[in-house]
Fold this protein.
Amino acid sequence: MAEEIRNTYRVGVDRNQSGKYEIRLQARYTERRWTLGVYFQASSPERVFNRLAAALRFLQRREEELWLWGSNPSDRGLLFEELLAEAGLAIDRRREFPRGGVVLSVRVGESFRPLHLAELKRKLEARLTAVGRAGRCPVEALRSSA
């Protein structure tokens, strides 16, 4: 029996110094043996989930086009970055991925189902709560101690 081919999407959430949530996505496209790292920022957990669902759908629908323009680092140019900016994403050049990332795996050609996104939301809610408590920016810490 043939092994099914699945694309894997890793999601990591951290809080930056300005207090915003920084969401990093790493899409591994199995058929093409290619990995794309992108990120975006959001100010609230609700915004994280809305933008995350849109970003995942974008990465899935535009796989072929993203691979065409971004697979060879020397070919990456303005067009590739414009393509990502269309979805509110920026290329993530960092090598290490945050610990505690959530992994979502979907068959190639299959759309994300509401169940996939609900499971992802459930897994990320605890992470967002922990990041929100531990990742307070220095300004908030100063305000609360005054």
